[in-house]
Design a protein that fits this description.
With 571 residues, the protein is of the alpha/beta class. Among the domains are: 105 residues, Succinate dehydrogenase/fumarate reductase flavoprotein, catalytic domain (Flavocytochrome C3, Chain A, domain 1, Alpha-Beta Complex), CATH 3.90.700.10; 122 residues, Methane Monooxygenase Hydroxylase, Chain G, domain 1 (Up-down Bundle), CATH 1.20.58.100. Helix content is 37%, strand content 18%. The chain is built from 15 helices and 19 strands. Strands 1, 2, 6, 7, 8, 9 and 16 form a seven-stranded mixed sheet that branches. A five-stranded mixed sheet has the order 17-15-10-18-19. The chain has a four-stranded antiparallel sheet with strand order 11-14-13-12. Helix 2 packs across helix 3. Bound molecules: flavin-adenine dinucleotide. The site of flavin-adenine dinucleotide has 47 residues, from helix 1, strand 2, helix 4, strand 7 and helix 5.
């Protein structure tokens, strides 16, 4: 094993889920290292704006909140596709996880009596979204980062994982490429825990950072893990027109209105009782319908108006939103409404795992947005994703430490398997570096993003999904002849983008295929040719396995119920 470093637990991903898990593994007395392709505090978690849900019941507007209410809202919001016992865990563990972050130093906004402030969010029956102005993710990520530094946790920064190594079907380490030097190295571990975030960059119009490519989801899929419910993609209703930077749901939580080109609020036609605070899938479709029926501005957007809140409230509670609107749209929301349109935002699907992060591959765990514990089902409620990283990051950390503490498998990190995998990855990268006469990755990537946005977007139908599946297959063929612009070793982002595109095409293919096969409308998956939810045939999860020839094989699993009967979802 000489030359290959070894840890009890190797965590791939330095966002909130990865860091929360790392703290847990460390505190259980196991050795842990976090490998991340970017510096951890540059993870997408740091971009989260609106807040994190917990039934603290702090809001002065009265009533008692409860975890049961939170669980019910989550399950109804999921359009009954969430596994109900898991949604209950999310809601039950929320208060303790959020208060723990407060005690670790997270700087939450507060009510005048000193308790953590909570704002209303879409689909929630109670104002239970805790926030730090509109920079909640930044606060939480820096707090967890500090906790990791305090514990002296090992970080392998700017190492891009290209492969999860398995031996006899069990995970035993990874191969990773050092971005600054181009060196490839193998790392051994009893347990590999991935926390790689979402894959929003498979779409053209997205709020996701450039780094959100799903490369660890794809690596897990290639290592034998099943992917669950990948057709469920969240389109956020309010992204800034032009750049698709997020305008948090907190803007509507604070009282923002949506207005069409006729100068009218329109949500009463789509969600008469909760208006702008309906869940995201409903508001996004409402905005797109206004635009498609000719009531949008310049054919493409509506307005988000918060002028009535006044400058003081906007500056105190939504300073980041105001700054982004001024910098990227030239609009000061104190004076003018913000132009917004829907855009890709979140992946409900991911690596299938249980409530402790365990996947189908022994020794491989998953947490955070890359995983599918199945708490969000067909539509995630705002504020539940930051929560998921804390609740299930912690649980996966506990389980990883437990597995490693039991000694893992005696041959969990076999040197031969790692050495072979390393040699193969080196060969593949070398071959790519040498190839000069092929197509550049960016052309294929743009065609994939356009296809996914146009054909597997907010409104879908069978014909467009068929087109998308065929087009992605053609793009995979084109990818076989991809070539780099330069073979240099240091900071070769062209190489990394090219390696990532392979996995993105696989995820795009599964997403499009799942959308084609699921002949119903549920949550974010809206089929204009099958506009009704069909619980008789489709109250089940889509599971994708990588077949022998590399093609996805689709199968189904029942939704786990716990007494919340599916009813029509009205707001
Ligand atoms: C703009 C925006 C605002 C949001 N606002 C909210 C909100 O207010 N409330 C809410 O609940 N949710 C919000 N979300 C969603 C939420 O922020 C994310 O789902 C969550 O933070 C994801 O955390 P994560 O730890 O799973 O992944 P990330 O934070 O995305 O971290 C992924 C990590 O994986 C690493 N990585 C990826 N691939 C590799 C590889 N191949 N090798 C090595 N490392 C790799 C990256 O370096 C990174 O460290 C928002 C999302 C966006 C995009």
């Amino acid at each position: 094993m000489s030359g290959i470093s070894r840890h009890d637990v190797l965590i791939a991903g330095g966002g909130l889920a990865g860091l929360r898990a790392a703290v847990q593994v460390h505190d259980a007395g196991r050795s842990v290292a976090v490998v991340s392709k970017v510096y951890p505090i540059r993870s997408h978690s740091g971009a989260a704006q609106g807040g994190v849900n917990a039934s603290l019941g702090n809001h002065p507007d009265g009533g008692d909140d409860s975890w049961e209410g939170h669980a019910f809202d989550t399950i109804k919001g999921s359009d009954y596709l969430a596994d109900q016992p898991r949604a209950e865990i999310l809601a039950q563990d929320a208060p303790v996880r959020v208060l723990e972050m407060e005690h670790w130093g997270a700087y939450f906004s507060r009510f005048p009596d000193g308790r953590i402030a909570q704002r209303p969010f879409g689909g929630a029956g109670f104002p239970r979204t805790c926030y730090a102005a509109d920079r909640t993710g930044h606060q939480l990520l820096h707090t967890l980062w500090e906790q990791c530094l305090k514990r002296g946790i090992t970080f392998l920064d700017e190492w891009f994982v290209t492969r999860i190594v398995t031996h006899d079907g069990r995970a035993g380490g990874v191969v990773a490429l050092h971005v600054p030097t181009g060196e490839l190295r193998a790392f051994a571990a009893d347990v590999v825990l991935i926390a790689g975030g979402g894959y929003g960059r498979v779409f053209a119009k997205t709020t996701n950072a450039y780094i959100n490519t799903g490369s660890l989801t794809a690596a897990a899929y290639r290592a034998g893990a099943r992917l669950e419910d990948m057709e469920f993609i969240q389109f956020h209703p309010t992204t800034l027109y032009g750049t698709n930077i997020l305008m948090t749901e907190g803007v509507r939580g604070e009282g923002g209105y949506l207005v069409n080109a006729e100068g009218k609020r329109f949500m009463d036609r789509y969600a008469p009782s909760v208006l702008e605070l309906a869940p995201r899938d409903i508001v996004a479709r409402a905005i797109q319908t206004e635009v498609d029926e000719g009531r949008g501005f310049e054919g493409g957007y509506v307005q988000l108006d918060i002028r009535h809140l006044g400058g003081d409230v906007i500056k105190e509670k939504l300073p980041g939103i105001r700054q982004i609107a001024m910098d990227f749209a030239g609009v000061d929301p104190i004076e003018e409404p913000i132009p917004v349109q829907p855009g890709q935002h979140y992946s409900m699907g991911g690596v299938s795992c249980d409530e402790n992060g365990e996947t189908d591959v022994p020794g491989l765990l998953a947490a955070g947005e890359c995983s599918c514990v199945s708490v969000h089902g067909a539509n995630r409620l705002g504020g539940n994703s930051l929560l998921e990283t804390l609740v299930f990051g912690k649980r996966a950390g506990d389980r990883a430490a437990e597995i490693a503490g039991a000694g893992g498998a005696p041959d969990a990190s076999p040197a031969d398997a790692l050495a072979d995998a390393l040699a193969e990855e080196r060969g593949a990268v070398e071959a790519l570096r040498k190839r000069t006469d092929g197509e550049r990755q960016i052309e294929i990537r743009r065609d994939m993003q356009r296809t996914m946005t146009e054909k597997v977007g907010l409104f879908r139908d069978g014909a467009r999904c068929v087109d998308a599946v065929r087009e992605i297959a053609r793009l995979r063929t084109r990818y076989r002849r991809v070539a780099l612009g330069s073979g240099h070793a240091a900071f070769n982002y062209d190489l990394i983008d090219t390696l990532e595109l392979r996995g993105m095409l696989e995820l795009a293919e599964i997403t499009a295929l799942g959308a084609l096969v699921r002949q119903e409308s549920r949550g974010s998956h809206w089929r204009t040719d099958h506009p009704k939810r069909d619980d008789t045939n489709w109250l089940k999860h889509t599971m994708a396995t990588r077949g022998k020839g590399g093609q996805p094989v689709i199968d189904y699993e029942d939704v786990v119920m716990a007494g919340y009967e599916p009813t029509e979802r009205t707001y």
